[in-house]
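Re-run with default settings, no changes from the original entry. Doing this only to confirm the output is reproducible before filing.
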Amino acid sequence: MDDNDQAPSELETLTLALLHSRGEVERLRERELLVGSLLAGLNAVLWAFDWDQQRMVYVSPAYERIFGRSTALLLADYGEWLNSIYPDDMEYAAQSLESVLEVGSVEQREYRIIRGDGEVRWLSDKCFISPPNLFGGQSLIVGIAEDITEKKVLQSELHRLATSDVLTGASNRRHFFERAEELFVEARDAGKPLSFLLLDIDDFKKINDRYGHQMGDRVLQRVSHCGAYVLRRDDLFGRIGGEEFAAVFPYCDAEQARQVAERLQREVQRLQFPCDGVNFGVTISQGITVLREGDELEDLYGRADAAMYQAKRQGKDCIVIG
């Protein structure tokens, strides 16, 4: 055998093996750096959770940027994640995470978090059970949490524009009657009382003619604010046209509705509008009716409308139950 064809010595073989290993290590390191840079630039949090141990085993670099909290604290104590969830959303977030064990994945979980600096943000969190051949056979819940606060703000604004009267902020006519129909059906099917109110600003045309349409708009806004202030949380209030407003009082009989209407009457009577060195006030006429057997929503609207015009004929600034 020629000297050039001699088999590599044991030392040479070991050296070649080390060089090969070093090359593999460098390639692994390069891949790790690449993955790390990709994760660092991703505006979402990748995470892995050991359900049995109730322990977070991995969280990507974006966690500290989105949550404003320490990764080290989270990996040391899963309670850090729980503490970051907005209190009203805690039960939903916990139950939806647990449901992954039953269904295998959850495509959409939306809940709020409180960042370390106190700011409230919205997250969309998708998660699933990892395949058993990954993570050494350990079954983990893995997911990706994305900050969707700006999307939520846009959705809220679009909803507000679609459902609110631009001038007064009250429900617009379309949204009012859609919600009124829902409340009507609920009350009718449950056999519960429901009251319907219509109100009209007295002599509104004279206000526009004497003080101008800009002042008329101000009157509409202030009367609407009175309605929002007086009505209860579950009541519905809207501007249904011109100077006419309407309200629906679920689970409310005629006497309770009258009490709310009287408070509204007093609030409007207190309003003062300065113009050209003088102040003027406004009044409203109100008509109320209640749900009766066999009614449709249109029947309540018709009776409330008739009662309101009866209030006009009785001298305005009063309440009539029809």
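The radius of gyration is 33 Å. The mean pLDDT is 85.
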